[in-house]
Amino acid sequence: MNRVTVLVADLVAVFAFATFARMAHRGDGMALSLAGVLSTYWPFALGVAVAFIVIVAAKWDGGRVRPAGVTAWVVTVVIGLSIWGLRNAAVPHWSFILVASIMSALLMLGWRAVAGAVAKRK
């Protein structure tokens, strides 16, 4: 799969994650606005960028669930939550770690699974 497509798909998946997070927590001091979504988005987008460098350096097909997708997901979550922790001077609550991990896995691994299934049909 084209590297640019992989990077854009992961960035879109993480943007969707940030948007859903803002929608779910609207009213808890989290505004549903572009600025609010971007505030949630950028730490995880940075994680995507670092993961992309790893995938390219390893010469993996970024569109495959394993090892590229799993690596992208883990790196993205670890970096995103680490930056969140630094910004908030606190360890993220276990429920936030769980939800962020599950939602990002569904989105980042999900598009790869769908793309792989479509490619097999051709």
- The Cα radius of gyration reads 15 Å
Q: Identify the overall geometry.
A: globular
Strand content: under 5%
Cα separation of the termini:
14 Å
User: How many runs of DSSP E, i.e. beta strands?
Assistant: 0
Biggest β-sheet: count, sense, barrel? none
The figure for the number of domains is: 1
Number of helices: 4
Uncertain residue segments:
none
Average pLDDT rating = 94
Classification by helices and strands: mainly alpha
Report the order of strands and helices.
HHHH
Helical percentage: over 70%
Transmembrane segments: 39-58, 70-87, 93-114
Keywords: Membrane, Transmembrane, Transmembrane helix
Pfam families: DUF3054
InterPro entries: DUF3054
Describe it.
InterPro entries: DUF3054. This is Membrane protein. The chain crosses the membrane at residues 39-58, 70-87, 93-114. Keywords: Membrane, Transmembrane, Transmembrane helix. The chain has one domain (3-121). By secondary structure, it is an all-alpha fold. The radius of gyration is 15 Å and the shape is globular. The two termini are 14 Å apart. The chain contains four helices and no strands. 81% of the residues lie in helices and 0% in strands.
What is the element layout, followed by pairings?
Blueprint: H1 3-24, H2 34-58, H3 65-88, H4 94-121
Helix pairs in contact: 1-2, 1-4, 2-3, 3-4
